[in-house]
Amino acid sequence: MSFVNIPLEHKQTVWQELSGIKEQFAARHWFPGTSGNLSLRVGDYTPDSFHFAITASGKDKSVSTPSDFLFVDQNGHACETTALRPSAETLIHCEIYRKTGCGAVFHVHTVFNNLVSEYFGEQGQVPIQGLELIKAFNIWEENAAITVPVLPNYADIPRIAELVPDALNPAIPGILLRGHGIYAWGQNAFEAKRHLEAFEFIFEYIYRDLLLRK
């Protein structure tokens, strides 16, 4: 389906849903400065053709305006004539959608996800075992163990995007950029939000556990 054939009401629903999520995350101070980005897919999907709304670059996410979001295609190019620029990290969203076929990708910067990504950065992954919140990822084994990939935070975003397909584990809906933040995704906004909240709880737990062990 081409972008012009996607019903207007579907686009408006995506816009409204992203606005609500943005407001919730801003209230948690998950967008320091103008950092972070949110996206939500709209219309049909194939790995070679899809569209999504994403936060515009350089916007204060604690306020809502008509220019908060724009629609882009599978290559991160704007679908409509606009003076807005998509987030600098749009290409990372593109690769996550392409690899997983998910419906939403949320990226935030927090102190805990930054500290944990730095601590485990040389390992290239954060090991997690036995925590209740692992169940948020639909993993129900007793004493389950998972790892979250940690990618280098290159200044050149395409270099990061190239690493995403091989690093991403479809069973674990998140990747970290070292000293930067978490990308979490899900089949829809509700699931992506649940995954992100679970990751943030886990990262805070890991940080505090490391402090207690010293």
TrEMBL record:
Keywords carried by this UniProt record: Amino-acid biosynthesis, Lyase, Metal-binding, Methionine biosynthesis, Zinc
Cofactor: how and how many bound: Binds 1 zinc ion per subunit.
Keyword Cell inner membrane: no
Protein family (similarity comment): Belongs to the aldolase class II family. MtnB subfamily.
Class of the enzyme per the UniProt entry, highest EC level: lyase
Residue ranges of every copy of the Class II aldolase/adducin N-terminal domain listed in the record: 16-207
EC identifiers of the protein: 4.2.1.109
Family annotation (Pfam families): Aldolase_II
InterPro entries assigned: Aldolase_II/adducin_N, Aldolase_II/adducin_N_sf, MethylthioRu-1-P_deHdtase_MtnB
Cofactor(s), names only, from the UniProt record: Zn(2+)
Gene name of the record: mtnB
Signal peptide from the UniProt entry: none
Protein name: Methylthioribulose-1-phosphate dehydratase
Sites where the protein binds Zn(2+): H107, H109
GO molecular function: methylthioribulose 1-phosphate dehydratase activity
Native source organism of the sequence: Paenibacillus wenxiniae
Function: Catalyzes the dehydration of methylthioribulose-1-phosphate (MTRu-1-P) into 2,3-diketo-5-methylthiopentyl-1-phosphate (DK-MTP-1-P).
Pathway terms, separated by semicolons: Amino-acid biosynthesis; L-methionine biosynthesis via salvage pathway; L-methionine from S-methyl-5-thio-alpha-D-ribose 1-phosphate: step 2/6
Reactions listed under catalytic activity: 5-(methylsulfanyl)-D-ribulose 1-phosphate = 5-methylsulfanyl-2,3-dioxopentyl phosphate + H2O
